[in-house]
Amino acid sequence: MAKCAICEKAVWFGNNVSHSHRRSNHMWKANVKSVRVKTSEGGSKKMYVCTNCLRSGRVERA
What does the similarity note say (predicted)? Predict the structure, then answer.
């Protein structure tokens, strides 16, 4: 699974807990998109970025 190149948000694990309190494994995935990003040299580079970083303006799209 992809990881955000900016904040390094990735997959995390835990338990689903039912009403009867039985537990089963669960995996949550970060909302990561493949995006073309402007680099400091003026070019563009394709990287995986989470939508939280895109919304907050930490990354500028090419």
Answer: Belongs to the bacterial ribosomal protein bL28 family.
Helix/strand/coil for 53: helix
Question: What tens-digit pLDDT sequence spans the chain (62 residues)?
Answer: 689 999 999 999 999 999 999 999 999 999 999 999 998 888 999 999 999 999 999 999 98
Q: How far from the centroid of its chain's Cα atoms is residue 17's Cα?
A: 24
Cβ-in-10-Å burial (0-12, 13-18, 19+) of 17 comes to: exposed
Say whether domain 12-56 belongs to CATH 1.20.120: no
CA 33 and chain centroid, separation:
7
* Dist. CA 10–CA 34, nearest whole Å: 14
Q: What is the pLDDT of residue 40?
A: 87
